[in-house]
Amino acid sequence: MAVDQDWSSVYPTAAAFKPASVPLPIRMGYPVKRGVPPPKEGNLELIKIPNFLHLTPPAIKKHCAALKDFCTEWPSALDSDEKCEQHFPIEVETVDYVSSGTSIRNPKARVVTLRVKLSNLNLDDHAKKKLIKLVGDRYCQETDVLTITTDRCPLRRQNYDYGMHLLTVLYHESWKTEKWESEKSEEDMEEYIWENSRSQKNALDTLLRIKASENVSNVTKEELLASEVVKNYRNSVIALKNEGETESNMSQYKESVKKLLNIQA
Amino acid sequence: MWGLAARLLAAARPHGTARPHGTARSKQKLFSTSSVLSKDKDKSTASKDSPPEGAAKKQEDGAETPKQQLLDIIGNMKVEVSYRKKLQQLKASENKKQAMNKVEGLDSEGSVPQGITEDTQRDKPLNPELVKAASAVASSLPHNKKQIESELLAQLRRHEETTDKQKKGGTINIRNVISEMTVKRQSPAQWGVRISGRISLQDEDGRRIRPERSSARSMDSRRSLKVGRRLNIFTKASTEPEHALKTVSSPTIWDLEFAKEVAAVTAQPPRNGFEEMIQWTKEGILWEFPIDNEVGMEDDAEFYEHIFLEKHLEGFPKEGPIRHFMELVICGLSKNPYLSVKQKVEHIEWFQKYFEEKKELLQEI
User: Fold this and answer.
1) ipTM of the complex model
2) Is the whole model's pTM more than 0.90, yes or no?
Protein backbone atom coordinates (compact mmCIF):
# COMPACT_ATOMS: atom_id res chain seq x y z
CA MET A 1 0.00 0.00 0.00
CA ALA A 2 1.35 3.41 -0.89
CA VAL A 3 2.23 5.63 2.03
CA ASP A 4 -0.02 8.48 0.97
CA GLN A 5 -3.06 6.34 0.15
CA ASP A 6 -6.33 7.48 1.59
CA TRP A 7 -7.10 5.06 4.42
CA SER A 8 -10.77 5.97 4.63
CA SER A 9 -11.32 4.57 1.14
CA VAL A 10 -9.63 1.29 2.03
CA TYR A 11 -11.98 0.86 4.99
CA PRO A 12 -15.03 3.06 4.36
CA THR A 13 -17.39 1.03 6.52
CA ALA A 14 -17.08 -1.67 9.10
CA ALA A 15 -15.47 -4.67 7.48
CA ALA A 16 -13.58 -7.73 8.50
CA PHE A 17 -9.83 -7.55 8.90
CA LYS A 18 -8.11 -8.07 5.56
CA PRO A 19 -4.45 -8.88 6.14
CA ALA A 20 -3.43 -7.90 2.66
CA SER A 21 -5.06 -4.46 2.95
CA VAL A 22 -3.78 -3.58 6.39
CA PRO A 23 -0.06 -2.83 6.10
CA LEU A 24 0.71 -3.28 9.79
CA PRO A 25 2.78 -6.23 11.01
CA ILE A 26 0.29 -7.37 13.65
CA ARG A 27 0.54 -10.60 15.53
CA MET A 28 -2.27 -12.09 17.56
CA GLY A 29 -2.99 -15.33 19.28
CA TYR A 30 -1.45 -17.71 21.75
CA PRO A 31 2.24 -18.17 21.00
CA VAL A 32 3.55 -21.59 20.15
CA LYS A 33 6.10 -23.00 22.57
CA ARG A 34 9.15 -20.75 22.71
CA GLY A 35 7.77 -18.75 19.86
CA VAL A 36 5.84 -15.65 19.05
CA PRO A 37 2.13 -15.09 18.43
CA PRO A 38 1.05 -16.10 14.94
CA PRO A 39 1.30 -13.51 12.15
CA LYS A 40 -1.65 -11.76 10.59
CA GLU A 41 -1.90 -13.85 7.40
CA GLY A 42 -4.87 -16.16 7.73
CA ASN A 43 -5.22 -15.28 11.40
CA LEU A 44 -8.74 -16.12 12.45
CA GLU A 45 -8.35 -14.35 15.76
CA LEU A 46 -7.89 -11.06 13.96
CA ILE A 47 -10.80 -11.69 11.64
CA LYS A 48 -13.21 -12.71 14.39
CA ILE A 49 -12.92 -9.63 16.54
CA PRO A 50 -14.63 -6.36 15.63
CA ASN A 51 -12.18 -3.71 14.50
CA PHE A 52 -12.43 0.06 14.26
CA LEU A 53 -10.23 0.53 11.23
CA HIS A 54 -13.08 2.43 9.58
CA LEU A 55 -13.21 5.02 12.35
CA THR A 56 -9.82 6.68 12.26
CA PRO A 57 -9.81 10.39 13.17
CA PRO A 58 -9.48 11.62 9.57
CA ALA A 59 -12.40 9.39 8.60
CA ILE A 60 -14.50 10.80 11.41
CA LYS A 61 -13.61 14.31 10.31
CA LYS A 62 -14.91 13.46 6.86
CA HIS A 63 -18.12 12.04 8.31
CA CYS A 64 -18.69 15.22 10.31
CA ALA A 65 -18.05 17.38 7.29
CA ALA A 66 -20.58 15.38 5.30
CA LEU A 67 -23.18 15.50 8.07
CA LYS A 68 -22.81 19.24 8.59
CA ASP A 69 -25.08 19.95 5.64
CA PHE A 70 -27.94 18.18 7.37
CA CYS A 71 -27.55 19.96 10.69
CA THR A 72 -29.13 23.20 11.85
CA GLU A 73 -27.06 25.61 13.86
CA TRP A 74 -27.47 26.07 17.57
CA PRO A 75 -29.19 29.40 18.16
CA SER A 76 -26.47 31.86 19.12
CA ALA A 77 -28.61 33.60 21.72
CA LEU A 78 -28.65 30.50 23.91
CA ASP A 79 -25.04 30.36 24.88
CA SER A 80 -25.35 29.52 28.55
CA ASP A 81 -27.28 27.08 30.70
CA GLU A 82 -29.05 29.83 32.60
CA LYS A 83 -30.38 31.36 29.41
CA CYS A 84 -31.60 27.98 28.23
CA GLU A 85 -33.40 27.48 31.50
CA GLN A 86 -34.85 30.93 31.43
CA HIS A 87 -36.36 30.54 27.98
CA PHE A 88 -37.15 26.83 28.15
CA PRO A 89 -37.90 25.94 31.75
CA ILE A 90 -39.49 22.57 31.04
CA GLU A 91 -37.13 19.74 30.10
CA VAL A 92 -38.61 16.77 28.28
CA GLU A 93 -36.60 13.57 28.20
CA THR A 94 -37.29 10.61 25.91
CA VAL A 95 -35.09 7.63 25.14
CA ASP A 96 -34.66 5.68 21.90
CA TYR A 97 -33.20 2.22 22.09
CA VAL A 98 -30.80 0.70 19.57
CA SER A 99 -30.38 -3.01 19.43
CA SER A 100 -29.24 -5.65 17.01
CA GLY A 101 -32.32 -7.68 16.46
CA THR A 102 -35.12 -8.32 14.06
CA SER A 103 -37.63 -5.99 15.69
CA ILE A 104 -37.22 -2.26 16.08
CA ARG A 105 -39.85 -2.08 18.81
CA ASN A 106 -38.89 -1.48 22.40
CA PRO A 107 -41.60 -0.95 25.02
CA LYS A 108 -39.27 1.19 27.13
CA ALA A 109 -39.29 3.84 24.43
CA ARG A 110 -42.71 5.16 25.39
CA VAL A 111 -41.55 6.64 28.73
CA VAL A 112 -41.52 10.44 28.86
CA THR A 113 -40.01 12.45 31.73
CA LEU A 114 -40.85 16.12 32.33
CA ARG A 115 -38.67 18.21 34.63
CA VAL A 116 -39.39 21.73 35.72
CA LYS A 117 -38.08 24.01 38.48
CA LEU A 118 -40.81 25.38 40.68
CA SER A 119 -39.07 28.74 40.82
CA ASN A 120 -39.87 29.11 37.14
CA LEU A 121 -43.56 28.63 37.78
CA ASN A 122 -45.70 31.51 38.95
CA LEU A 123 -46.73 30.22 42.37
CA ASP A 124 -47.50 32.07 45.58
CA ASP A 125 -46.80 30.65 48.99
CA HIS A 126 -50.05 28.75 49.43
CA ALA A 127 -49.96 27.42 45.84
CA LYS A 128 -46.41 26.19 46.18
CA LYS A 129 -47.14 24.37 49.42
CA LYS A 130 -50.28 22.83 47.98
CA LEU A 131 -48.46 21.73 44.85
CA ILE A 132 -45.72 20.11 46.86
CA LYS A 133 -48.30 18.27 48.92
CA LEU A 134 -50.09 17.10 45.80
CA VAL A 135 -47.06 15.69 44.02
CA GLY A 136 -45.40 14.16 47.04
CA ASP A 137 -42.28 12.24 46.14
CA ARG A 138 -41.92 13.75 42.70
CA TYR A 139 -40.55 17.01 44.12
CA CYS A 140 -36.95 17.27 45.18
CA GLN A 141 -36.40 19.78 47.98
CA GLU A 142 -32.71 20.35 47.39
CA THR A 143 -32.85 21.09 43.69
CA ASP A 144 -36.38 22.50 43.60
CA VAL A 145 -37.19 20.27 40.63
CA LEU A 146 -40.54 18.66 39.94
CA THR A 147 -40.23 15.44 37.90
CA ILE A 148 -43.23 13.86 36.19
CA THR A 149 -42.72 10.49 34.50
CA THR A 150 -45.50 9.10 32.32
CA ASP A 151 -45.75 5.71 30.66
CA ARG A 152 -49.42 4.83 30.85
CA CYS A 153 -50.09 5.17 27.13
CA PRO A 154 -48.70 3.05 24.34
CA LEU A 155 -47.22 5.89 22.28
CA ARG A 156 -44.63 8.47 23.19
CA ARG A 157 -46.63 11.46 21.95
CA GLN A 158 -49.61 10.38 24.03
CA ASN A 159 -47.42 10.17 27.11
CA TYR A 160 -45.99 13.61 26.39
CA ASP A 161 -49.48 15.06 26.06
CA TYR A 162 -50.54 13.40 29.28
CA GLY A 163 -47.49 14.78 31.12
CA MET A 164 -48.19 18.33 29.96
CA HIS A 165 -51.84 17.88 30.91
CA LEU A 166 -50.82 16.77 34.41
CA LEU A 167 -48.52 19.77 34.84
CA THR A 168 -51.27 22.16 33.76
CA VAL A 169 -53.83 20.57 36.06
CA LEU A 170 -51.44 20.67 39.02
CA TYR A 171 -50.68 24.32 38.44
CA HIS A 172 -54.30 25.37 38.25
CA GLU A 173 -55.41 23.20 41.14
CA SER A 174 -52.71 24.55 43.43
CA TRP A 175 -53.94 28.09 42.89
CA LYS A 176 -57.48 27.16 43.90
CA THR A 177 -58.35 27.08 47.59
CA GLU A 178 -60.89 24.53 48.68
CA LYS A 179 -63.16 24.93 51.69
CA TRP A 180 -61.64 22.08 53.61
CA GLU A 181 -58.16 23.57 53.38
CA SER A 182 -58.99 25.83 56.30
CA GLU A 183 -58.97 22.72 58.48
CA LYS A 184 -55.23 22.46 58.05
CA SER A 185 -53.80 21.53 61.40
CA GLU A 186 -50.43 21.96 62.95
CA GLU A 187 -49.32 18.47 61.88
CA ASP A 188 -49.94 19.34 58.24
CA MET A 189 -47.70 22.38 58.35
CA GLU A 190 -44.50 22.13 56.38
CA GLU A 191 -42.55 24.60 58.47
CA TYR A 192 -42.73 25.92 61.97
CA ILE A 193 -44.80 29.04 62.54
CA TRP A 194 -44.36 30.68 65.88
CA GLU A 195 -47.58 32.65 65.95
CA ASN A 196 -50.30 30.77 67.83
CA SER A 197 -47.96 28.01 68.85
CA ARG A 198 -47.38 26.54 72.28
CA SER A 199 -44.00 28.18 72.50
CA GLN A 200 -45.54 31.60 72.09
CA LYS A 201 -48.20 30.85 74.67
CA ASN A 202 -45.69 29.59 77.17
CA ALA A 203 -43.38 32.53 76.72
CA LEU A 204 -46.17 35.04 77.07
CA ASP A 205 -47.59 33.31 80.13
CA THR A 206 -44.22 33.25 81.83
CA LEU A 207 -43.56 36.88 81.09
CA LEU A 208 -46.99 37.92 82.28
CA ARG A 209 -46.51 36.07 85.52
CA ILE A 210 -43.12 37.63 86.03
CA LYS A 211 -44.55 41.03 85.46
CA ALA A 212 -47.47 40.32 87.78
CA SER A 213 -45.18 39.14 90.55
CA GLU A 214 -43.13 42.30 90.18
CA ASN A 215 -46.30 44.28 90.40
CA VAL A 216 -45.70 46.21 87.27
CA SER A 217 -48.73 47.66 85.57
CA ASN A 218 -50.47 45.30 83.27
CA VAL A 219 -48.56 45.02 80.11
CA THR A 220 -50.59 43.89 77.17
CA LYS A 221 -49.75 40.96 75.03
CA GLU A 222 -49.12 43.12 72.01
CA GLU A 223 -46.50 45.14 73.87
CA LEU A 224 -44.83 42.02 74.98
CA LEU A 225 -44.85 40.59 71.53
CA ALA A 226 -43.39 43.76 70.14
CA SER A 227 -40.58 43.82 72.65
CA GLU A 228 -37.06 42.96 71.58
CA VAL A 229 -36.49 40.02 73.87
CA VAL A 230 -39.61 38.24 72.75
CA LYS A 231 -38.74 38.84 69.15
CA ASN A 232 -35.29 37.41 69.72
CA TYR A 233 -36.77 34.39 71.41
CA ARG A 234 -39.20 33.90 68.57
CA ASN A 235 -36.45 33.99 65.95
CA SER A 236 -34.26 31.56 67.78
CA VAL A 237 -37.08 29.07 68.29
CA ILE A 238 -38.08 29.24 64.62
CA ALA A 239 -34.50 28.72 63.56
CA LEU A 240 -34.15 25.72 65.83
CA LYS A 241 -37.31 24.06 64.61
CA ASN A 242 -36.87 24.68 60.90
CA GLU A 243 -33.18 24.22 60.47
CA GLY A 244 -32.41 21.70 63.13
CA GLU A 245 -29.95 21.92 65.97
CA THR A 246 -26.66 23.55 65.11
CA GLU A 247 -24.05 25.22 67.27
CA SER A 248 -25.06 28.72 66.30
CA ASN A 249 -28.77 27.98 66.69
CA MET A 250 -28.33 26.61 70.17
CA SER A 251 -26.16 29.49 71.33
CA GLN A 252 -28.64 31.97 69.88
CA TYR A 253 -31.43 30.22 71.76
CA LYS A 254 -29.45 30.35 74.98
CA GLU A 255 -28.83 34.07 74.63
CA SER A 256 -32.44 34.81 73.86
CA VAL A 257 -33.70 32.80 76.83
CA LYS A 258 -31.28 34.54 79.14
CA LYS A 259 -32.44 37.92 77.93
CA LEU A 260 -36.09 36.92 78.17
CA LEU A 261 -35.90 35.77 81.75
CA ASN A 262 -33.38 38.40 82.71
CA ILE A 263 -30.88 35.89 83.89
CA GLN A 264 -27.40 37.28 84.09
CA ALA A 265 -25.29 34.16 84.20
CA MET B 1 -29.31 -49.17 23.78
CA TRP B 2 -25.64 -49.13 24.59
CA GLY B 3 -26.23 -46.72 27.43
CA LEU B 4 -28.89 -49.01 28.77
CA ALA B 5 -26.56 -51.99 28.78
CA ALA B 6 -23.80 -49.97 30.41
CA ARG B 7 -26.08 -48.83 33.16
CA LEU B 8 -27.31 -52.37 33.75
CA LEU B 9 -23.74 -53.55 34.26
CA ALA B 10 -22.95 -50.65 36.50
CA ALA B 11 -25.92 -51.40 38.67
CA ALA B 12 -25.10 -55.09 38.85
CA ARG B 13 -21.55 -54.58 40.13
CA PRO B 14 -21.87 -53.06 43.61
CA HIS B 15 -24.09 -55.77 44.98
CA GLY B 16 -22.11 -56.80 48.00
CA THR B 17 -21.04 -53.33 49.15
CA ALA B 18 -23.19 -51.57 51.68
CA ARG B 19 -24.36 -48.82 49.38
CA PRO B 20 -28.06 -49.23 49.37
CA HIS B 21 -28.77 -45.60 48.54
CA GLY B 22 -26.47 -45.71 45.57
CA THR B 23 -28.12 -48.72 44.07
CA ALA B 24 -31.55 -47.42 44.77
CA ARG B 25 -30.70 -44.21 42.98
CA SER B 26 -29.17 -45.90 40.00
CA LYS B 27 -32.18 -48.12 39.69
CA GLN B 28 -34.34 -45.05 39.72
CA LYS B 29 -32.27 -43.68 36.87
CA LEU B 30 -32.80 -46.86 34.91
CA PHE B 31 -36.51 -46.39 35.10
CA SER B 32 -36.27 -43.14 33.22
CA THR B 33 -33.71 -43.49 30.55
CA SER B 34 -33.74 -41.57 27.31
CA SER B 35 -36.06 -38.56 27.42
CA VAL B 36 -35.73 -35.78 29.96
CA LEU B 37 -39.49 -35.38 30.24
CA SER B 38 -40.01 -38.92 31.24
CA LYS B 39 -37.31 -38.53 33.86
CA ASP B 40 -39.12 -35.61 35.48
CA LYS B 41 -42.44 -37.34 35.40
CA ASP B 42 -41.08 -40.51 36.87
CA LYS B 43 -39.19 -38.67 39.54
CA SER B 44 -42.33 -36.88 40.64
CA THR B 45 -44.37 -40.06 40.76
CA ALA B 46 -41.55 -42.24 42.00
CA SER B 47 -40.42 -39.86 44.71
CA LYS B 48 -43.29 -40.95 46.87
CA ASP B 49 -42.43 -44.58 46.26
CA SER B 50 -38.72 -44.25 46.92
CA PRO B 51 -38.63 -44.61 50.72
CA PRO B 52 -40.56 -47.89 50.80
CA GLU B 53 -38.80 -49.09 47.66
CA GLY B 54 -35.41 -48.22 49.01
CA ALA B 55 -36.13 -50.08 52.20
CA ALA B 56 -37.30 -53.14 50.30
CA LYS B 57 -34.25 -53.09 48.07
CA LYS B 58 -31.90 -52.82 51.02
CA GLN B 59 -33.19 -56.10 52.29
CA GLU B 60 -33.02 -57.72 48.90
CA ASP B 61 -29.48 -56.71 48.05
CA GLY B 62 -27.71 -58.63 50.70
CA ALA B 63 -29.44 -61.87 49.85
CA GLU B 64 -29.27 -62.00 46.05
CA THR B 65 -26.68 -62.84 43.47
CA PRO B 66 -25.87 -60.36 40.74
CA LYS B 67 -27.78 -62.40 38.23
CA GLN B 68 -30.86 -62.33 40.36
CA GLN B 69 -30.44 -58.61 40.75
CA LEU B 70 -30.23 -58.16 36.99
CA LEU B 71 -33.39 -60.12 36.52
CA ASP B 72 -35.07 -58.09 39.20
CA ILE B 73 -34.01 -54.91 37.53
CA ILE B 74 -35.28 -56.00 34.16
CA GLY B 75 -38.52 -57.14 35.66
CA ASN B 76 -39.02 -53.85 37.48
CA MET B 77 -38.21 -51.71 34.49
CA LYS B 78 -41.17 -50.18 32.80
CA VAL B 79 -41.71 -50.91 29.18
CA GLU B 80 -40.15 -48.11 27.17
CA VAL B 81 -43.02 -46.44 25.40
CA SER B 82 -42.31 -44.26 22.40
CA TYR B 83 -41.50 -40.60 23.04
CA ARG B 84 -44.66 -39.24 21.46
CA LYS B 85 -46.89 -41.38 23.63
CA LYS B 86 -45.03 -40.22 26.69
CA LEU B 87 -45.61 -36.59 25.69
CA GLN B 88 -49.29 -37.26 25.22
CA GLN B 89 -49.48 -38.93 28.58
CA LEU B 90 -47.74 -35.99 30.17
CA LYS B 91 -50.14 -33.54 28.54
CA ALA B 92 -53.13 -35.60 29.63
CA SER B 93 -51.90 -35.68 33.21
CA GLU B 94 -51.26 -31.92 33.16
CA ASN B 95 -54.73 -31.22 31.85
CA LYS B 96 -56.22 -33.43 34.51
CA LYS B 97 -54.25 -31.60 37.19
CA GLN B 98 -55.46 -28.22 35.92
CA ALA B 99 -59.05 -29.43 35.76
CA MET B 100 -58.73 -30.69 39.32
CA ASN B 101 -57.36 -27.36 40.46
CA LYS B 102 -60.18 -25.47 38.79
CA VAL B 103 -62.83 -27.69 40.34
CA GLU B 104 -61.23 -27.32 43.74
CA GLY B 105 -61.00 -23.59 43.26
CA LEU B 106 -64.69 -23.31 42.41
CA ASP B 107 -65.73 -25.19 45.47
CA SER B 108 -63.78 -23.13 47.98
CA GLU B 109 -65.16 -19.82 49.21
CA GLY B 110 -62.04 -17.92 50.19
CA SER B 111 -61.36 -15.01 47.89
CA VAL B 112 -57.67 -14.24 47.96
CA PRO B 113 -56.16 -17.74 47.95
CA GLN B 114 -58.72 -18.83 45.38
CA GLY B 115 -57.54 -16.23 42.97
CA ILE B 116 -53.97 -17.31 43.39
CA THR B 117 -54.45 -21.07 43.13
CA GLU B 118 -56.57 -20.80 40.02
CA ASP B 119 -53.77 -19.20 38.07
CA THR B 120 -52.10 -22.31 36.84
CA GLN B 121 -51.40 -20.85 33.45
CA ARG B 122 -50.07 -17.42 34.43
CA ASP B 123 -46.99 -16.43 36.32
CA LYS B 124 -48.36 -13.62 38.42
CA PRO B 125 -51.70 -13.79 40.23
CA LEU B 126 -54.55 -11.33 39.78
CA ASN B 127 -54.57 -8.17 41.86
CA PRO B 128 -56.02 -9.20 45.26
CA GLU B 129 -58.11 -6.02 45.46
CA LEU B 130 -59.77 -6.87 42.17
CA VAL B 131 -60.46 -10.37 43.39
CA LYS B 132 -61.95 -9.08 46.63
CA ALA B 133 -64.12 -6.65 44.71
CA ALA B 134 -65.24 -9.48 42.44
CA SER B 135 -66.24 -11.62 45.37
CA ALA B 136 -68.10 -8.66 46.90
CA VAL B 137 -70.06 -8.23 43.68
CA ALA B 138 -70.79 -11.91 43.54
CA SER B 139 -72.08 -11.97 47.07
CA SER B 140 -74.33 -8.99 46.39
CA LEU B 141 -76.06 -10.87 43.58
CA PRO B 142 -77.55 -13.75 45.49
CA HIS B 143 -78.17 -16.07 42.58
CA ASN B 144 -75.37 -18.53 41.99
CA LYS B 145 -72.50 -16.68 43.63
CA LYS B 146 -69.74 -19.07 42.77
CA GLN B 147 -70.49 -19.09 39.09
CA ILE B 148 -70.58 -15.30 38.93
CA GLU B 149 -67.33 -15.02 40.75
CA SER B 150 -65.63 -17.56 38.56
CA GLU B 151 -66.88 -15.89 35.41
CA LEU B 152 -65.68 -12.46 36.56
CA LEU B 153 -62.31 -13.80 37.48
CA ALA B 154 -62.02 -15.67 34.19
CA GLN B 155 -62.74 -12.47 32.29
CA LEU B 156 -60.16 -10.56 34.28
CA ARG B 157 -57.65 -13.29 33.57
CA ARG B 158 -58.43 -12.99 29.88
CA HIS B 159 -57.58 -9.25 30.10
CA GLU B 160 -54.22 -10.10 31.57
CA GLU B 161 -53.52 -12.74 28.96
CA THR B 162 -54.18 -10.41 26.06
CA THR B 163 -52.02 -7.84 27.80
CA ASP B 164 -49.21 -10.31 28.18
CA LYS B 165 -49.54 -11.53 24.61
CA GLN B 166 -49.40 -8.04 23.22
CA LYS B 167 -46.55 -7.21 25.56
CA LYS B 168 -44.51 -10.02 24.12
CA GLY B 169 -45.91 -9.51 20.66
CA GLY B 170 -42.86 -7.54 19.61
CA THR B 171 -40.75 -10.64 19.16
CA ILE B 172 -41.23 -12.13 15.78
CA ASN B 173 -42.48 -15.65 15.57
CA ILE B 174 -40.07 -17.57 13.35
CA ARG B 175 -43.01 -19.28 11.69
CA ASN B 176 -44.32 -15.95 10.41
CA VAL B 177 -40.92 -15.12 9.03
CA ILE B 178 -40.52 -18.44 7.24
CA SER B 179 -44.04 -18.46 5.85
CA GLU B 180 -43.44 -15.14 4.18
CA MET B 181 -40.20 -16.20 2.63
CA THR B 182 -40.50 -17.58 -0.88
CA VAL B 183 -38.06 -19.76 -2.63
CA LYS B 184 -36.50 -17.87 -5.49
CA ARG B 185 -37.55 -19.53 -8.69
CA GLN B 186 -35.57 -19.25 -11.86
CA SER B 187 -37.47 -18.26 -14.91
CA PRO B 188 -38.31 -21.07 -17.35
CA ALA B 189 -36.01 -19.47 -19.89
CA GLN B 190 -33.07 -19.95 -17.63
CA TRP B 191 -34.07 -23.53 -16.94
CA GLY B 192 -34.19 -24.11 -20.65
CA VAL B 193 -30.72 -22.70 -21.02
CA ARG B 194 -29.34 -24.90 -18.30
CA ILE B 195 -30.94 -28.04 -19.62
CA SER B 196 -30.14 -27.41 -23.24
CA GLY B 197 -26.62 -26.52 -22.25
CA ARG B 198 -26.22 -29.77 -20.45
CA ILE B 199 -27.64 -31.79 -23.24
CA SER B 200 -25.64 -30.08 -25.89
CA LEU B 201 -22.34 -30.65 -24.16
CA GLN B 202 -22.21 -34.35 -24.73
CA ASP B 203 -23.62 -35.94 -27.82
CA GLU B 204 -22.60 -39.25 -29.40
CA ASP B 205 -19.18 -40.49 -28.40
CA GLY B 206 -18.61 -37.48 -26.23
CA ARG B 207 -18.15 -35.16 -29.13
CA ARG B 208 -18.98 -31.71 -27.93
CA ILE B 209 -21.63 -30.23 -30.13
CA ARG B 210 -22.87 -26.78 -29.47
CA PRO B 211 -25.65 -26.21 -31.94
CA GLU B 212 -27.84 -23.94 -29.83
CA ARG B 213 -25.14 -21.70 -28.49
CA SER B 214 -26.12 -18.56 -30.33
CA SER B 215 -29.74 -18.63 -29.25
CA ALA B 216 -28.66 -19.77 -25.81
CA ARG B 217 -26.30 -16.85 -25.62
CA SER B 218 -29.05 -14.48 -26.45
CA MET B 219 -31.16 -16.08 -23.70
CA ASP B 220 -28.18 -15.98 -21.36
CA SER B 221 -27.90 -12.25 -21.67
CA ARG B 222 -31.37 -12.02 -20.19
CA ARG B 223 -33.38 -11.63 -23.29
CA SER B 224 -32.26 -8.13 -23.80
CA LEU B 225 -31.48 -8.46 -27.48
CA LYS B 226 -34.75 -9.64 -28.91
CA VAL B 227 -37.30 -8.47 -26.41
CA GLY B 228 -38.72 -4.99 -26.13
CA ARG B 229 -39.96 -2.16 -28.23
CA ARG B 230 -38.03 -1.58 -31.39
CA LEU B 231 -36.19 1.69 -31.46
CA ASN B 232 -36.78 2.10 -35.22
CA ILE B 233 -33.43 3.71 -35.77
CA PHE B 234 -32.46 1.58 -38.76
CA THR B 235 -35.74 0.48 -40.29
CA LYS B 236 -38.45 2.75 -41.50
CA ALA B 237 -41.14 0.74 -39.81
CA SER B 238 -44.56 2.28 -39.48
CA THR B 239 -44.98 3.94 -36.12
CA GLU B 240 -48.77 4.35 -36.35
CA PRO B 241 -49.96 0.90 -35.36
CA GLU B 242 -47.53 0.89 -32.43
CA HIS B 243 -48.96 4.09 -31.05
CA ALA B 244 -52.42 2.68 -31.53
CA LEU B 245 -51.35 -0.44 -29.70
CA LYS B 246 -49.94 1.62 -26.88
CA THR B 247 -53.14 3.51 -26.26
CA VAL B 248 -55.22 0.35 -26.37
CA SER B 249 -53.40 -1.68 -23.76
CA SER B 250 -52.69 -0.50 -20.23
CA PRO B 251 -49.30 -1.63 -18.91
CA THR B 252 -49.39 -5.31 -19.56
CA ILE B 253 -47.62 -7.85 -17.47
CA TRP B 254 -44.91 -7.99 -20.08
CA ASP B 255 -44.31 -4.28 -19.75
CA LEU B 256 -43.99 -4.60 -16.03
CA GLU B 257 -41.65 -7.52 -16.43
CA PHE B 258 -39.58 -5.52 -18.88
CA ALA B 259 -39.40 -2.61 -16.49
CA LYS B 260 -38.18 -4.95 -13.77
CA GLU B 261 -35.59 -6.44 -16.08
CA VAL B 262 -34.26 -3.03 -17.02
CA ALA B 263 -34.03 -2.01 -13.40
CA ALA B 264 -32.19 -5.22 -12.56
CA VAL B 265 -29.72 -4.77 -15.38
CA THR B 266 -28.98 -1.13 -14.75
CA ALA B 267 -28.66 -1.61 -11.00
CA GLN B 268 -24.94 -1.93 -10.50
CA PRO B 269 -23.69 -3.85 -7.51
CA PRO B 270 -22.67 -1.44 -4.73
CA ARG B 271 -19.21 -0.04 -5.21
CA ASN B 272 -18.46 0.53 -1.56
CA GLY B 273 -19.79 -0.02 1.93
CA PHE B 274 -21.87 3.14 1.94
CA GLU B 275 -23.75 2.18 -1.20
CA GLU B 276 -24.34 -1.25 0.25
CA MET B 277 -25.80 0.33 3.36
CA ILE B 278 -28.02 2.54 1.19
CA GLN B 279 -29.27 -0.50 -0.67
CA TRP B 280 -29.95 -2.36 2.55
CA THR B 281 -31.85 0.61 3.95
CA LYS B 282 -34.00 0.70 0.84
CA GLU B 283 -34.71 -2.99 1.13
CA GLY B 284 -35.56 -2.63 4.78
CA ILE B 285 -32.71 -4.80 6.05
CA LEU B 286 -31.11 -1.83 7.82
CA TRP B 287 -33.15 0.40 10.11
CA GLU B 288 -33.52 4.05 9.29
CA PHE B 289 -31.44 6.33 11.46
CA PRO B 290 -32.06 8.21 13.72
CA ILE B 291 -33.86 5.24 15.17
CA ASP B 292 -37.44 5.74 16.16
CA ASN B 293 -38.69 2.73 18.09
CA GLU B 294 -42.28 3.57 17.25
CA VAL B 295 -41.92 3.73 13.49
CA GLY B 296 -45.00 2.32 11.85
CA MET B 297 -46.90 2.01 15.12
CA GLU B 298 -50.21 3.74 14.51
CA ASP B 299 -52.55 4.62 17.31
CA ASP B 300 -54.99 7.37 16.44
CA ALA B 301 -56.33 7.62 19.96
CA GLU B 302 -55.33 10.48 22.26
CA PHE B 303 -54.12 10.10 25.81
CA TYR B 304 -57.44 10.99 27.36
CA GLU B 305 -59.13 8.12 25.54
CA HIS B 306 -56.70 5.71 27.15
CA ILE B 307 -56.67 7.12 30.64
CA PHE B 308 -60.03 8.77 31.33
CA LEU B 309 -62.44 5.89 30.93
CA GLU B 310 -65.12 7.03 33.37
CA LYS B 311 -67.48 8.00 30.60
CA HIS B 312 -67.88 4.32 29.75
CA LEU B 313 -69.21 3.69 33.24
CA GLU B 314 -72.51 5.41 32.59
CA GLY B 315 -74.44 2.20 32.22
CA PHE B 316 -73.54 0.99 35.68
CA PRO B 317 -75.23 1.81 39.00
CA LYS B 318 -73.75 4.75 40.84
CA GLU B 319 -73.02 3.01 44.10
CA GLY B 320 -72.49 -0.40 45.45
CA PRO B 321 -70.04 -3.20 44.95
CA ILE B 322 -70.53 -3.29 41.18
CA ARG B 323 -69.49 0.33 40.85
CA HIS B 324 -66.52 -0.21 43.09
CA PHE B 325 -65.47 -3.24 41.08
CA MET B 326 -65.84 -1.40 37.78
CA GLU B 327 -63.83 1.53 39.05
CA LEU B 328 -61.01 -0.81 39.90
CA VAL B 329 -61.30 -2.38 36.46
CA ILE B 330 -61.08 1.05 34.87
CA CYS B 331 -58.10 1.98 36.99
CA GLY B 332 -56.32 -1.14 35.83
CA LEU B 333 -57.20 -0.55 32.20
CA SER B 334 -56.01 3.03 32.28
CA LYS B 335 -52.59 1.90 33.45
CA ASN B 336 -52.33 -0.69 30.70
CA PRO B 337 -50.28 0.49 27.71
CA TYR B 338 -50.54 -2.76 25.80
CA LEU B 339 -54.22 -2.68 24.90
CA SER B 340 -55.82 -0.44 22.31
CA VAL B 341 -58.73 1.84 23.15
CA LYS B 342 -61.11 -0.42 21.26
CA GLN B 343 -60.05 -3.42 23.33
CA LYS B 344 -60.51 -1.52 26.57
CA VAL B 345 -63.99 -0.38 25.57
CA GLU B 346 -64.84 -3.95 24.59
CA HIS B 347 -63.78 -5.19 28.00
CA ILE B 348 -66.01 -2.69 29.74
CA GLU B 349 -68.91 -3.56 27.46
CA TRP B 350 -68.46 -7.23 28.21
CA PHE B 351 -68.88 -6.50 31.89
CA GLN B 352 -71.88 -4.34 31.18
CA LYS B 353 -73.57 -7.11 29.20
CA TYR B 354 -72.71 -9.62 31.87
CA PHE B 355 -74.23 -7.59 34.66
CA GLU B 356 -77.29 -6.84 32.55
CA GLU B 357 -77.93 -10.56 32.13
CA LYS B 358 -77.53 -11.14 35.81
CA LYS B 359 -79.95 -8.31 36.57
CA GLU B 360 -82.60 -9.93 34.41
CA LEU B 361 -82.10 -13.18 36.23
CA LEU B 362 -82.37 -11.41 39.56
CA GLN B 363 -85.58 -9.71 38.60
CA GLU B 364 -87.05 -12.99 37.51
CA ILE B 365 -86.62 -14.31 41.00
Assistant:
1) 0.70
2) no
